[in-house]
Specification:
Layout lengths: L1 E7 L3 H12 L3 E8 L6 H14 L7 E3 L13 H4 L21 H10 L6 E5 L4 H9 L3 H4 E7 L15 H5 L1 H9 L4 E4 L1 H4 L3 E2 L1 H8 L4 H21 L4 E2 L3 H8 L4 E10 L10 E4 L9 E7 L1 H13 L5
Parallel strand pairs: 1-2, 1-4, 2-3, 4-5, 5-6, 6-11
Antiparallel strand pairs: 7-8, 9-10, 9-11
The protein binds beta-D-ribofuranose (BDR) and calcium ion.
Length: 312
Amino acid sequence: KTTLIIDCDPGVDDATGLLMAFAASNIDLLAITTVGGNVPAERTARNACILRQIAEREDVPVFAGAARPLVREPAGAGEFHGEEGLGDMAPFVPAKGAEDEHAVDAIIRLVMSRPNGTVDLVAMGPMTNLALALRREPLLAERLKQVVAMGGARSEGGNITASAEFNIWADPDAAHEVMQSPVPVVMIGLDATHQVRATEERIRTIEAIGNASSKAVAGMLRFSQRVERTIVGWDAAPLHDPCTVAYVMAPELFRLRPAEIRIEAQSDLTRGHTAVEMRGDVLEARHLWAVKADAEGIFDLIGETLANAGVK
Ligand code: BDR
Ligand code: CA
């Protein structure tokens, strides 16, 4: 079993990743922490609680975190996620809300109270909470087993500017601090996630499972399909954040290359650019960059996992 904390900004693709993790029998989910990103922080925390309720996983605590990036002004991505962050789903007041403890305190407490190398952290949004936690407790970098982050772009180019992917662009200073720290990071960027497309057939397969989590996921995927067709002109939307959960569950579904990843945080033109160095003697580097994702395998995994939703 993987012991996991998920830091996220739901967000329709975060929602799919969360519902998958809630249903996964081989994940021991310690906590969900939330950050402002796709939509403002109050909404990402509320959305995580709504998704937890749909999954009937009130045993997993939700901790709300940073509302603002380290330096930049907050920027949303409501056009890709809906103003409330859950696509077409009407938000409701969840029966159980977030805990009082701040996400940054919770991450430090939960990881530092466990043995070295036993907790994975998945980052599905801007890395603000993680950067703040590393500032407060630098030993966290050695205590975490690995960070598996959705972020960055190399050969695909960006999705928010020519250079930058949204999660890195939204808080480049936080991403810079995380990537400069000794924490091992597996970065799954657009080069890999663009290979994972929610085709109509794949959406139907998930919908047909018929439980509350799979219906919610199918709704999110349909929303993304519509938005992607309208705004980007692609027939099938890429599935970004769930790749991180898929990686934790089945790393063999990805091909990774050792890399040294640096973040451009200063330039106006290339803010949030991920400089992925894979030349020469970076084989000992602490970063891994995803170059290939097995889309068929990932969708099979999502289906098998969601089929177990609600079964404890
Ligand atoms: C990333 O940005 C957000 O809009 C998505 O939730 C995902 O985390 C993709 O660039
Ligand atoms: Ca996200």
